[in-house]
Amino acid sequence: MKNLFALFAILVLAWGCGKNDDNNVNNNNPYLTPPIVNLNLNLNLPEYNPLKFPGNSVFLNQQGIKGIIIYNVNNTLYTAFDLTDPNHIPNACSRMTVEGVIATCTCDDENSYDIVTGQHQNNTQSYPMLQYRIQRNGDNITVNN
Description:
This protein has one helix at about 1-15, and strands spanning about 40, 55-60, 70, 80, 95-100, 100-105, 110-115, 135, 140-145. By secondary structure, it is an alpha+beta fold. The longest helix is centred in the first third of the chain and has 16 residues, at about 1-15.
């Protein structure tokens, strides 16, 4: 009986430890293979200084698949999303442009997404934008996946 209980306890622990707490839906997107991203941004540098103020964003052109947009929601909450349309295989028209808090694909379907939530503006069945983890510590922001 003790052996059965020990086996059951080990199975429960193994099952609980195997779960990913990030709830990352990016892994299910057949169109995108997330690149490795590990960035440290110093907000005292002029190119990242706008991120000290809510409502501002910074575009990192040479990062991610088609670039990364970082948005300051309220100085506590920041978001970081890849600017490739998650509902296309990356191609010439899948790079999105940002106006305000809306990122829009230049392909014929003109998909648009909210850069605060990453969600598609019109179609809840579409894949959300590829999101990166972001954390602010003092005047430094870390973006990774």
